[in-house]
Amino acid sequence: MTPFELAEPATLKEAVALLDPDDPSVRPIAGGTALMLMMKAGVFQPSKLVSLHKVNELTAIGAMPDGALRIGAMTALATLERSAAVRAHAPVITRTLRTLSNIRVRNVATIGGSLAHADPHMDMPPVLIALGAHVTVAGPAGERTIPVEQLFAGYFETVLAHNELITSVVVPAQRDGRAVYLKCTTRAVHDWPALGVAVAVESDGATVRDARVVVSAATETPGRLTGVEQALRGGRIGDALWRAAGEAAAKEAQTISDGQGSAAYKRQLVRVYVARALAAALKPDGAN
To answer: Is 160 strand, coil or helix?
Structure first.
């Protein structure tokens, strides 16, 4: 690796001031699990890294007055996995983290860093999108809020400016819906997925009241299948509806080819896994 400057601010204000809006070689570093690999491979050569490890205000997990859960951006994924508050608020997050990479990575990687990295194969973005989560972002002009579904601009790209930092992730109160995340990997369960599908479904008796269906890994960015969601609303719960949703998802999803499989292969995965995820969410003992 080439030499670089390391800054270790103690406050969020100091951290933001150290970033350069016009110099992409000045980067914040959270867990560094992805960034360090990029540096070792020579893909990224920073002039300065701004470490966020001493910014204590970014690590808290706590309930908000409206029932939402705020998660500090520097919270390690392993901490989320073990958090009773997270498990009670959105158990789908806890289940998802158990097969996200491996425990060594989860002990170091942070929720904010993983979102800012914008790798479309990550497991958490589709789950957070399905739950309706948003991020709070700090910059020189103050704070702004971005829905997670609007955070990703392209392959490894976000809408964040070079001098903006994710400070927290906010997961709204989950009413009586049920959420499920399924992924298909070509090797071990913790490997990069060829497809990730997250669904959050609310029902009235035997009818779907509302649904959010999100796909990732098979597409350039994680995103909702709004056509499928619309088709599900008001539908009668059962295998016929799940199969129809799977077919609609295969038509709507803009799948891409990469090392995990061809676009055609991933389209078939979308067809199968969307139906499976919906069935899992609304079976009598379904997840939540």
So the answer is: coil
